[in-house]
Amino acid sequence: MPPMSSFLSVLLICLLSVLLLRLSTLLDPGAAVPRIKRSAPLPLRFRHDGAFKILQVADMHFGNGAATRCRDVAPEVGGALCSDLNTTRFLRRLIEAERPDLIAFTGDNIFGGSATDAAESLLRAISPAMEYNVPWAAILGNHDQESTMTREELMTFLSLMDYSVSQVNPPGFLVHGFGNYHVGIHGTFGSEFVNTSLLNLYFLDSGDREVVDGIKTYGWIKESQLAWLSATSRELQQNLHSPALAFFHIPIPEVRELWYTDFKGQYQEGVACSLVNSGALGTLVSMGDVKGVFLGHDHLNDFCGDLNGIQFCYGGGFGYHAYGRSGWPRRARVIHTQLKKGQRSWAGVESIQTWKLLDDEKLSKIDEQVLWRHDDDDSDHSLYL
Ligand SMILES: *[C@@H]1O[C@H](CO)[C@@H](O)[C@H](O)[C@H]1NC(C)=O
Ligand SMILES: *[C@@H]1O[C@H](CO)[C@@H](O)[C@H](O)[C@H]1NC(C)=O
Fold first, then answer.
1. Are residues 19 and 98 in the same domain?
2. Which residues span the domain enclosing 121?
3. Residues paired with residue 373 on neighbouring β-strands, in sequence order
4. In this structure, which residue's CA is closest to atom 8 in ligand 2?
5. Do residues 87 and 169 both lie within one domain?
6. How many domains does the chain have?
7. Would the CB of 73 count as within 6 Å of ligand 1?
8. Is the CB of 82 under 6 A from ligand 1?
9. What is the pLDDT of residues 239-279, one digit of tens each?
10. Single pTM value for the model
């Protein structure tokens, strides 16, 4: 990087930190003294019961809070009664009920057009994760940057917030977009894998909108991102073959084909992907470690389906200011990974399961399924002693 642009990035980070501190003081007037970011305990680890649970929050579409009205809800629970605060309440209920080890915010976290101040809107949207000290990772959708911050500023800001494990981009790589990073989940303390990532999470920026040959379309994952992804996966798998999960906002074109398969969940609207197919599926398949991909973008789709041995799952619409369907509750996805009990301590990942929770009275759990299970025949034996 030329010295001028690195100077500018440092300046940008400083300005954003000041902004963050100022905003947190505004939101919490009691906190008069500036403070630095509260960091999540790193590296993230499996719990002592051998589980690691991820809550996927797709498409919050947060605006200005109490003033931002809900869309597509029944009249008797809508109107002035319903706002972004219902989105916040849903997130709090989920955290209390599920106690996730990580929350993955998969884009369109804020709805730029309804957010007067992007930073304030993001702080409010993510606040339940910070209140409950839950580590979280975020990526961008196509609406986040439609307010007062660019995609680079948004990702920088997200990376500086309390308990965030988000990163702008991987150090040492020139990668397209903002929000391409890897998070490793290590073995429990006291186990043989205390220094080893047993589950790898890849976060990718699928962009916003593009014009291709004069035609408007959605963004897609670029060649430089796929190159970084395969290089990272190759390096991680040099010693151990830990399974991996990937997260990005805009579905790849092949997700359309799932209509003709035995998917689980609801397929209620067309897959709004890019016209461009950059070969992401081929890359993901050839990497060999990715078992599940988690998407947002299409709020009325919440299914999982198999493409070449990888499960592609939508999170389902979460936010009340996002379009939805009246009478079809807002929802979130839980991804539950469990280690295998080894002879001496916990071994590698044994299973990856998922289900969804609805924002109804009982927080109903639906569509529970196993996405992947360790197979003794074809796995890395060093992980399963
Ligand atoms: C939104 O929250 C208010 C206040 O808690 C509640 O009365 C209303 O039913 C909620 N609306 C929806 C659609 O959940
Ligand atoms: C893990 O790393 C720490 C610090 O480098 C080291 O002291 C310890 O022996 C390692 N433990 C295992 C099981 O590899």
1. no
2. 40-383
3. 351
4. 195
5. yes
6. 2
7. yes
8. yes
9. 889 999 999 999 999 999 999 999 999 999 999 999 999 99
10. 0.91
